[in-house]
Amino acid sequence: MGRPFRLRDPVHGFIQLHADEVKLIDTPIFQRLRRIRQLAMASLVYPGAVHTRFDHSLGVCHVAGMLAEELGLDSDEVRLVRLAALLHDLGHGPFSHVSEPLLERHADRSRLPAEQKKEKIHELITAHFIRTDPALAMRAGPARGEEIAHLLLAEFGQPALKNIVSGPLDADKQDYLLRDSRFCGVAYGLFDIHQLHRSLVLYGAEDHQQLMIRPDGVHATEQYVLAKYYLTTMVYRHRVRLITDQMIVRALTLGIEVDQIEQLRCLYFFDGSDEFFENYKQWDDERLLLACTSAELAHTACAQLMGRLLDRRLLKRVFLARIGREEDSALREVLGNLPKPEHSARRSEIETEAARLLAKVTRQQVDKRFVIVHVFDIKSVRTTSRNDEAGILVATAPQPRPFEQESTLFASINEEYDDQFVEMYAPVEWETHTARDRLLETLRRPMEELIRAACTGVKGETL
Amino acid sequence: MDTYDFVHLALLAMGSDIKGKTKLQKTVYFLGVLTGMIDELGYRPHFYGPYSDDVAGGIGRLRALRFVDQNVTGMGTVDQSGFEVYRYDYRLNDDGRKVAQQKAKRHREAWERIQQAAQMLKHGGDLDYMKLSVAAKAFFMLGEKKGRASIEDLTLLAKRFGWSVTNDQIKEAAGYLERLGLVENV
Hints:
- The structure holds 2 protein chains of 2 kinds.
- In chain A, 52% of the residues lie in helices and 10% in strands.
- Chain A has 23 helices and 9 strands.
- By secondary structure, chain B is of the alpha+beta class.
- In chain B, the strands form 2 sheets. In chain B, strands 1-5-4 form a 3-stranded antiparallel beta sheet. In chain B, strands 2-3 form a two-stranded antiparallel ribbon.
C-alpha cells in the first residue's frame, strides 16, 4: 500500500485516503459524481447546497472507516467497508434521487436474473459499474469488485459490515446529515458523530454480529435520530424543494412521454443491456439540463419547464389539504393512493380542471401540463426513528430491544401521528403575500370540489 | 395489487385484532407465502425475522387514512424475553372494512386467495408473536436452502442472519409449517 493521501473536507476536516482508494477515485466513472449534486436543485432554496455525490462519497468512506476502526474490525474488513462506502453511490443518475422514479417507472426487468428483479434500479446500476467498469476493475481487481458489490447488494454476508454501509446507523446517513446541514447553512442535522461512534457496539456471536447501540449510548442516538427528523422536516421536505423535485420529474416525464425525446428514453429505459450502461454513465446534471433546454428542443414542454427551473420561475403551491380530515372514506382511499399508476387518468383530470380554474380565477395563462398534483406522507418522529430499514436496536440483555422503547424521550412520544397530504403546484404568479393568501382562499373550495369530482364522480361540499 | 392493498385485505381476511407489530409482520408474511404473492411484499431478513418496510408503510398509510385503529398497550417495564414491552394492536374500523370490501370486489381473485390463506393460518393455530417469528425465520431459511434442510442445518443457518434460535424452537416451528402445508417431514 502506498503513502496515504490527505485532503481537506469541509465537514470532517482532514480525510485520509489510501492509495488504492485514490486510484478508484481517479476514474472517469467516479469523477462523474462531481457533476451530480447531492440535493438536486435544493440550491434554489438553500444557495449553498451545491455539494455533490463526490464529496459525500469521500465523506462516507471516511465515516465508515472511522466507525469500523472504533468497532475493532480487522484491517482487511476496514478496507472493504471503506471501499464499499466510497463506491455506494456510483449508480446515481442526474439529480440524484429525482431520477429514481423515472428509472423505476420505465425499467424493463424481464432480462434481469430472478434475484435482481426486486432490486432498486440505481442500486443495480451501482453494482454493475463496480463489477464491470474497466477502469475500476483494473484498479480494484475483479475479486475485490465482486466483494464490494456483494456487500452493497446481497442479503447475505457479515451483518456487521453490511450494517456500516447500509442500515439505520450507516455511514451514509451519518455523513449526509452533517454534510447537508453544512452546505444548506442550517444546524438541524447536527449531532456528535464521535460520541455516536463510541455508543455503537457489535452484538451477537462471532461472524454474525450486528451493529447496535450500547445501553448507555441511547442519548447520543437520540440526538442523531432527531437530527434526521429535523433535517427531513426543514430541508428534505421544504415546500420549495418538493416543488423543484416535482418540476424535474414532470419535465422529464413530459420529455419522454409527450415530446418523445430519444435521449431521455435511452437514459431512463433501463433494460440491463450494455448499451444502457454505457450511455447512462455519460450523463450528469449539467448535461441533462443542457440537453433538455437546447435550442432544437425549445418548443417542447420539457424544455419550457426545465427553463423555468434554470430561471427560478418556480411553480407555486396553490392548494394544500390533509387527506385524513376528509369525511368520505372512499375519497380518502383514492386520494391516499393517487400516485399509483391506476389513478393516472384521475390525476390528469384533476390537473386539467385545476388549470382551467386557475386560468379563470387569476386571468393568467395556465398550461395544464405544468399543473402538478402531489401526494406525500408525514410520519411521527417515533416512526421516523425506525428509518426505512426496520429500526435501531439497543444491545440490552438478555435480548436486544428497539431503540424507541429504550429511549425515555422516544418512548414518551405518541406514535399515533401519521398523515398524508395532497398539494397542487401550478405556473401562476402573485405580486404580494396578501394577494397570494386571497387567491389561495378563493381557490380552496372549488379546488376541493374538483378533486372530489375527479376522484368520486360526485360533486361534494368539502375536502 | 400492491403491498398496501394486500395488507388492507389481509386485515379484512383475518377478521379480528392483530396483536403486536411483530405478529402483524409475520401474519402478512405467511399470508404472502400461502397466496404465492410473497415476492411482491418486499420481505428481507431482519433481527426479528423476515420484515417488510412496505408492509410497515402499508399499515402507516391505512392509519393515516383512518382505516385502521392502533391501540397501544403497556406490557409492564420488564419483559423476561426482553422483547416488545409495548404492544401495538391493529384493527380495521368501520370505514376501513367498508373500503376493503369494495377493494375485495375489485380484486376478486387475489381476495379469494387471501381469504383461503387466512383460513389456513387460523387452522394452523394461534401462535404468539415469538413462535410465529421463529416459524417465519425457519420458513425464510428453508427458501435459502432450496426447500430441504434438517433442523440442525436451520439452527446453524440462522446465525448467518444474526438470528438466535434453538433446535427445539425450530422443531416446534416445523410442526406449525407442516400444519400449514408448507413443509413435509421426509
